[in-house]
Design brief:
Length: about 260
């Protein structure tokens, strides 16, 4: 039986007075026409610039890019300003944890070696302040995602990625962009229901003793107190009201609108 990829990273984060921890997900840079994509990146840059002096840790909860793949000597064209500001965060001593999504799963070495960002292939268990967080992109969590889990295991395998690396980048990126569009359309139209959805996965984690479950993937923001805990879905940045999560020990976990 297939099971979701889980590589729990036990993080312990102290949040200094006046600082916060920030979560973003499903920005999908590279999707849409050029002008729309540039506006989306501009909003992201403004948001990251606005939190640089207040955040002490940034979580990218998957699908920052609509497609990403590390070739040996080539990186995808565009979004250099995003890469630059992420590098600025690292240079300023602000750690970034990047969870692979279902669109930007082609990470190999670039983010770690060139920028200093730790990329996690699975979910993250973090003690932030005095709250226990379970952080996951969310792909493969619904019980009717077995077919996707099989596909993901193939696409993420070293063999498949080595074969893909032999394609010319122009052809490879064009092929992957088409696949990403199909995946995004499937996610947007998928009926997660009330018995097999991401919410129910979050409920199961809260029942294990987690205080906050943070996810993305579904492209539908959620902020729901369930029993003793809190389920937060970060939504997406494809519409006019992108959101991010912000946690401080004093105010707890909030879901707020990004800067424009």
């Amino acid at each position: 039986m297939l099971s979701p990829v889980v590589s729990i990273k036990n993080l312990i984060l102290e949040v200094p007075e006046g600082k916060d921890v920030t979560f973003i997900s499903d920005v999908h840079l590279g999707f849409g026409d050029r002008d729309t994509d540039r506006r989306r990146e501009r909003t992201l840059i403004q948001t990251l610039s606005g939190i640089r002096n207040t955040t002490c840790h940034l979580f990218i909860v998957g699908d920052l890019f609509d497609f990403w793949f590390d070739y040996k000597t080539t990186i995808p064209k565009g979004h250099v300003r995003t890469l630059a500001i992420l590098h600025d965060f690292i240079d300023a001593g602000i750690p970034i944890t990047y969870l692979m999504g279902n669109h930007d799963f082609g990470h190999w070495k670039y983010f770690q070696e060139e920028i200093g960002i730790k990329v996690e292939v699975g979910d993250v268990d973090a003690l932030i302040g005095d709250k226990r967080f379970y952080i996951s992109h969310g792909d493969g969590k619904a019980i009717n995602d077995k077919g996707y889990l099989l596909l993901r295991s193939i696409l993420r395998s070293r063999v498949s990625q080595s074969v893909f690396r032999f394609l010319h980048p122009d052809l490879g990126i064009r092929l992957a962009s088409h696949t990403s569009k199909s995946s995004r359309d499937f996610t947007a139209s998928k009926d997660y229901g009330t018995t097999d959805g991401l919410r129910d996965f979050a409920l199961s984690k809260l029942s294990e003793g987690y205080d906050v479950v943070v996810m993305g993937h579904r492209h539908q923001a959620a902020y729901e107190h369930i029993n003793h805990g809190l389920y937060v879905n970060l939504g997406d940045w494809l519409g006019s009201s992108p959101m991010l999560g912000r946690f401080t020990p004093r105010e707890g976990m909030q879901l707020i609108f990004a800067s424009h």
